[in-house]
Here is the input.
Amino acid sequence: MSNPVFDQIKNVIDSNDVVLFMKGTADFPSCGFSAKVTHILSDLGVSFKDVNILEDDSLRQGLKEFSSWPTFPQLYIKGELVGGCDIVREMYASGELAQLLKEKSIACN
Amino acid sequence: MDVSEIEERLKTAFPDADIDVGALKKDGRHFYCKISAKEFTGKNKVQQHQLVYKALGDYLQQDLHALALQTEAPST
Here is the structure.
């Protein structure tokens, strides 16, 4: 059975190397955790697609199911869930995030 | 929702784990949680966090705003 919200999510993560599902936008994050991940990606000089889940409640609910992940932000790199704020912060601090981006051939600092 | 409810759920799901739960703010919506559990062995961070979220289940669908989560497999 096809699920239109899942199709919508797959379409976004398949057509963008780096996607951040977040509260608010990259320019105006409306939650501290989303802001934190936005800053980390900016620090690394990574361009990414921001998706504001506050604007679409069916997307917000569908994504929780799609990812088995109940909170936001959610960072996807090359179609794969990398994590939420805590994981991204840990990976950034240890240098793993930069390494992962390089491995995936995504331009970053 | 309070700290003891979260702690109880986690102890049920991870009986032998080292669990530290606390409040980040006094609003009953922001919590932190550190867990070291053998169930995490061989799993990556995403999978470890997913196990915790699964254990908390519908608690997270209520008005919990944030759970700062640190997971690790025991080193022994």
